[in-house]
Design a protein that fits this description.
- This protein is α+β, with helices and mostly antiparallel strands.
- It has a domain at about 5-45 and about 50-65 and about 105-135.
- Helices cover about 40% and strands about 10% of the residues.
- The protein contains six helices and four strands, in the order αββααββααα.
- The chain has a two-stranded antiparallel ribbon.
- A hairpin with a 5-residue loop joins strand 1 and strand 2 (about 20-25).
- It is globular and about 55 Å long.
- The mean pLDDT is about 85.
Length: about 140
């Protein structure tokens, strides 16, 4: 089975959110991804990591988890005490059956990629400022 969201992330199209969906600057979580497999060896591959902040944002948000009526996204505690999100494919109704609650509640869909990124950057700057003041 091919993980299209992971392929999209590796291609630099966006980052993967807690819902497992690829979140891109152009379309947020609303896209279908296809792939073409080839054996061409000299394809130009660049390392794109400018979307790595998305998962940090999603871990603080959690709207997709709360929105899922079928509980296809569940929070589980890992061995280290941190929470992880598990996607249970067989519970997910999916877009083809008319369910888009996780997409509709996603701030990337509601507000747009740049708005969410700007807000997240401002929040992190404030936290860093508070931290530097408390350390001195």
């Amino acid at each position: 089975m091919v993980g299209f969201s992971k392929l999209g992330q590796k291609a630099g199209l966006g980052g993967i959110g807690q819902s497992g969906l690829l979140i891109s600057p152009e379309l947020g979580p609303r896209q279908k991804i296809s792939a073409i497999f080839t054996n061409i060896e000299n394809l130009p591959m660049e390392k794109h990591d400018d979307h790595s902040w998305i998962l940090d944002y999603c871990e603080k948000c959690g709207k997709c988890i709360k929105a899922c009526p079928e509980k296809a996204l569940i929070e589980t505690e890992s061995c280290c005490g941190a929470n992880e999100i598990e996607f249970i494919q067989k519970r997910c109704i999916g877009c083809s059956q008319g369910c888009t609650y996780c997409i509709e509640d996603c701030p990337f869909d509601e507000k747009g990629y740049e708005h969410v990124k700007n807000k997240f950057d401002k929040m992190n700057a404030k936290l860093a400022e508070k931290k530097s003041k408390s350390c001195c």
